Amino acid sequence: METRPRLGVGLVGAGFIAKFHARAWQGVRDADIVAVTSRTRTSAEAVAAEVERLGAGTDVSIHEDVAALVRDPRVDAVWVLTPNFARVSTIETIVEEVRSGRAGLRGIAVEKPLGRTVAEAKRVLDLVESVGLLHGYLENQVFSPAITRAHELVWTRGAAVAGSPYLARAAEEHSGPHNTWFWNGAEEGGGVLNDMMCHSVEAGRFLLTPPGTDPSTWLTPVSVSASIHSLKWGRTRYARELSDTYPGVVDYTRTPSEDYAHAVFEFVNGDGEPVVVEATTSWSHVGAGLRLGFELLGPEYSMESSTLATESRVFLSRNLTQERGEDLVEKQNAEQGLMPIVSDEALSYGYTGENAAFAADFLAGRQPKESLVNGLEVIELLMAAYHSAETGRTVTWPVELESFVPAVAQGQWNPRSRH
After folding, report:
1. What is the rounded CA–CA span in Å between residue 155 and residue 151?
2. Could you tell me what percent of the chain has a pLDDT over 70?
C-alpha cells in the first residue's frame, strides 16, 4: 500500500490557542504536529503531551526556541501562535533561519491578528514574501462549517437569481480573555476591537464575496464609522477583580482597553453595488459562554447562525455542586441551569477546517486562499475603525494608517475621564 505523504508541522507558542489547534488536528489527514516551542518549557510539554494523547502527532519534539524548532528536519511548516507583542520578532527569527539555509520550510501560518498596527502587519507580510514561503492567515471563522455551507447555498440559490448580498452582520462576544497580556493595551495592540473584530471583519467580507473569489478583489473599502467603550471592566469593582485575577494587568480605572466595539464598514462590491459589514465585539458579555453570531441579507434571501443555538442542551439544578470549567462551551460562565453544548468546538469554530486546508495546500505547494495579504487588509480596516472611534468621525478611503497607533495601545485612552 502506498504511504500517504504527510506534512510535519511545528507549533510556535503553547498557550490557549495552541490547545485549540491540537484538538482540531484530529480532523487533519495530511499533517502531523511534530514539534512545539514556547517561552515556557512546561507549556510546551503540556501541549506536546496533549498532541500525542489526541493522536495528532507522535514523538513530538520540544525545542528551547523558535530557531531550533525550524531547523528540525521533521518540520516542514510552522504555525505561529505567539502573543501579539512577540509576533514580529518571531517572524524575523524564522525568516532569518530560512534565508540562511538553516531551515527548509514550505510554508508558514500566522494566527490573528497579523499585527498590532498596519506597520507590524506589513513587516510580517514583507518578511515572509522575501523568502518565498507559502503563507496562510489563521482566520478560523471563514472555515466554520455553518458559515461555509450557508455561504455556498446563499450564493448558489439566492444571489445567482436575485443578485449579490448587501449586508453582513458578525458578532463575537464573551466575558473576557484568559491571559494577562490580552488585557494590557500595549501588548495586545488595543482591546476587544483588535482581539476579536478581526474575526468579524473577515467573516463579513467572506460572506459578501462569491465562493472561490478573494475578498481583496471583490470588495473595495469606502468608509468606516466606529465606536469603542469600556462598559464593564472600567468600573471600579470589576477593575479590582481584574487586578486580583491577572497580576500585572494595567489599572483599568486609569488606562483601560475597550471591552465593547461596534463598527460599520462600507464597501463597493464587484457588481458596483454598495455593501456593508456591521461588526460587534465584546469582552463584557455575560451568558452561557462564547457567542458567535452571523447574518447575511440579500434582495430575496437571508441566512443566520449562532454558535449558542446548539443541537443539544443540558439542565443542571442548583442542588448540584459544580466545579468551574469550560467543558460545555468556551468562556463558560456557569455550571448550572439550562446550558448549551457545543459538541466539537474546534470543528464548529473553524479550526479543523483551516488547519486541514492549510496543511493540504502546503503539502501540494499551493498558496492558500486565506493569505497574509488578507490579514494585512483586516488590520488596515481595524486601524481605520480605531481612528474613527478616536476622532468621532467617519473615516473614508484612501487613508494613510501605517504610522497610526491606537490611543488604547499607547495607554492614552480613558473614556471615564471625560465625565
Report:
1. 6
2. 93
Measured over the CA atoms of residue 304, residue 306, residue 311 and residue 316, the dihedral's sign is negative
Handedness of CA 234, 235, 238, 244 (dihedral sign): positive
Q: Strand 260-268's sheet: what is its strand order?
A: 301-306, 291-298, 167-173, 274-282, 260-268, 220-229, 395-396
- Residues ≥6 apart with Cβ < 8 Å to 153: 303
Categorize the per-residue pLDDT at 313 as very low, low, confident or very high, splitting at 50, 70 and 90: confident
3-state secondary structure of 124: helix
Query: What distance lies between CA 225 and its chain's CA centroid?
Result: 22
Segment 49-96, tens digit of pLDDT? 999 999 999 999 999 999 999 999 999 999 999 999 999 999 999 999
pLDDT at 1: 38
Query: How far is residue 278's CA from residue 268's CA, in Å, rounded to a whole number?
Result: 14
Instruction: Assess contact for 370 and 136: CB atoms under 8 A.
Output: yes
Say what the pLDDT of residue 323 is. Answer: 76
| Residue 52 CA to its chain's centroid (Å) | 25
Set of cell numbers at residue 29: 489527514
Amino acid in the structure at residue 61: S
Q: How far apart are CA 305 and CA 206, in angstroms?
A: 14
CA neighbor of 109 nearest in space, from 364, 345, 356: 356
For residues 21 and 51, give the distance between their C-alpha atoms in angstroms, rounded to a whole number. 9
Q: How far is CA 312 from CA 227, 309, 316, 360, in A?
A: 36, 9, 14, 32
Instruction: Give the pLDDT confidence of 290-309 residue by residue, as tens digits.
Output: 788 999 999 999 999 987 77
Answer whether 116's CB lies under 8 Å from 47's CB: no
